[in-house]
């Protein structure tokens, strides 16, 4: 139940109270902020009660309708920032937090990459302990949730490894991409990302085997059963196993490539946005953006999978997937507009060669798998069918001078001569 009348009544009472009983402060800045927040809240109330439901229903459909409306608000905010000048856009962030709008201080990234530092008698492993900050559990938790979204081990590992290659390739643009080799491949890929993916796959296995038979809360006799039922309210109502099968046809292959590309672009936007908008990594807006993508990413992936897997039933891309794609592109356009000099810094030639080689190999494999190999397989199948018809004594319907036709006619004539003699 959406309680549309109840929400409308409460909203109306709040507006009547503010209009008749509350004195409006003589502060233009404060009134502007409050008016914008009130407008957003009214839109959220409308969306939570009236927006179209998505594929998820737990813990409650209104929860996912709320995040759909938040997605619309965030995209509108990004469009507003995109249409400002660079100076005005950065200074506008002061309205959200007065501490923003100032250039970020330079930091030293990379530094000493020795795992064991013999020059430090107090703690030779200080380089490792320095990396054990809040980003370690964030990496683990992030990849655990991404695995629950993608539901495929290979795709998760490809995205994880590809992002490390992107950090190598772009460390000349963003200083915080400059990390030690063991930080890239041991701390990130193997420990944090790998462990998060492993735990995510174990959770997926449990969810796929879990029985989904629901019973009303008031029909459960014991308190323990009621508490267990309340806890399970935050698990899926039913389960769909994702089978991407990228090599099965060209549509799926291009869809998987597009998903990987958009995932990597969204990951890069996290670092570039806070760089061009002058937001410190520990700022709460950076965290709120990550929380936002955690809540909308799963719905978007489910809508993309349904659109790719059953295009006859799902004839258009889902609303959340559409908005997430638009947000990812808009964020990148903001980065390009606000700091084109950083984006246009030339990539080292040997790195460019590696990326061009990788793209060329993907292009060649695509041509071979879905065009050359497919035609060759069909041709071989036709020849096999014709040979089968010949063995059964049936003349295949072929062009007059086809070699199998000539072979069949010759064999038939020899057999007729032998039978006559």
Automatic annotation (TrEMBL):
Its EC number is 2.7.8.29. GO terms for biological process: phosphatidylserine biosynthetic process. It is a multi-pass membrane protein. The keyword Lipid metabolism applies. It catalyses: 1-(1Z-octadecenyl)-2-(9Z-octadecenoyl)-sn-glycero-3-phosphoethanolamine + L-serine = 1-(1Z-octadecenyl)-2-(9Z-octadecenoyl)-sn-glycero-3-phospho-L-serine + ethanolamine; 1-octadecanoyl-2-(9Z-octadecenoyl)-sn-glycero-3-phosphoethanolamine + L-serine = 1-octadecanoyl-2-(9Z-octadecenoyl)-sn-glycero-3-phospho-L-serine + ethanolamine; 1-octadecanoyl-2-(4Z,7Z,10Z,13Z,16Z,19Z-docosahexaenoyl)-sn-glycero-3-phosphoethanolamine + L-serine = 1-octadecanoyl-2-(4Z,7Z,10Z,13Z,16Z,19Z-docosahexaenoyl)-sn-glycero-3-phosphoserine + ethanolamine; 1-(1Z-octadecenyl)-2-(4Z,7Z,10Z,13Z,16Z,19Z-docosahexaenoyl)-sn-glycero-3-phosphoethanolamine + L-serine = 1-(1Z-octadecenyl)-2-(4Z,7Z,10Z,13Z,16Z,19Z-docosahexaenoyl)-sn-glycero-3-phospho-L-serine + ethanolamine. Belongs to the phosphatidyl serine synthase family. PANTHER family: PHOSPHATIDYLINOSITOL SYNTHASE (PTHR15362), PHOSPHATIDYLSERINE SYNTHASE 2 (PTHR15362:SF7). This is Phosphatidylserine synthase. It comes from Echeneis naucrates (Live sharksucker). The lineage of its organism: Eukaryota, Metazoa, Chordata, Craniata, Vertebrata. The gene is ptdss2.
């Amino acid at each position: 139940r959406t309680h549309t009348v109840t929400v409308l009544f409460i909203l109306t009472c709040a507006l009547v109270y503010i209009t008749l009983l509350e004195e409006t402060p003589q502060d233009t800045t404060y009134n502007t902020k409050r008016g914008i927040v009130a407008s957003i809240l009214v839109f959220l109330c409308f969306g939570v009660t009236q927006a179209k439901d998505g594929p998820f229903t737990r813990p409650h459909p209104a929860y996912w309708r709320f995040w759909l409306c938040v997605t619309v608000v965030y995209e509108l905010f990004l469009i507003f920032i995109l249409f400002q000048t660079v100076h005005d856009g950065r200074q506008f962030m002061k309205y959200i937090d007065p501490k923003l709008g100032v250039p970020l201080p330079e930091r030293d990234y990379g530094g000493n990459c020795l795992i064991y530092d013999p020059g430090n008698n107090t703690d030779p492993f200080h380089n490792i302990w320095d990396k054990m900050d809040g980003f370690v559990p964030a990496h683990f938790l992030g990849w655990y949730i991404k695995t629950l979204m993608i539901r495929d081990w290979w795709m998760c590992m490809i995205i994880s490894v590809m992002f490390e290659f992107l950090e190598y390739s772009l460390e000349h643009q963003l200083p915080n991409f400059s990390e030690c080799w063991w930080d890239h491949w041991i701390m990130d890929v193997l420990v944090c990302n790998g462990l998060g993916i492993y735990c995510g796959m174990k959770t997926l296995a449990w969810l796929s085997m879990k029985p989904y038979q629901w019973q009303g809360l008031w029909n459960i006799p014991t308190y323990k059963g009621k508490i267990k039922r309340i806890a399970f309210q935050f698990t899926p109502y039913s389960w769909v196993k994702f089978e991407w099968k990228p090599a099965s046809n060209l549509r799926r292959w291009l869809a998987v490539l597009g998903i990987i590309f958009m995932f990597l672009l969204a990951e890069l936007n996290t670092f570039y946005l806070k760089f061009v908008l002058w937001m410190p990594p520990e700022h709460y807006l950076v965290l709120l953006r990550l929380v936002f993508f955690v809540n909308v990413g799963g719905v978007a992936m489910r809508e993309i999978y349904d659109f790719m897997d059953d295009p006859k039933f799902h004839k258009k891309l889902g609303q959340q997937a559409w908005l997430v794609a638009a947000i990812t592109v808009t964020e990148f356009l903001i980065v390009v507009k606000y700091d084109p000099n950083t984006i246009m810094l030339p990539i080292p030639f040997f790195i460019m060669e590696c990326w061009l080689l990788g793209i060329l190999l993907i292009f060649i494999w695509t041509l071979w798998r879905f065009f050359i190999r497919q035609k060759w397989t069909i041709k071989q199948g036709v020849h096999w069918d014709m040979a089968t018809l010949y063995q059964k004594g049936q003349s295949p319907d072929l062009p007059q001078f086809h070699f199998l036709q000539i072979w069949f006619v010759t064999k038939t004539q020899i057999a007729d001569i032998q039978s006559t003699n």
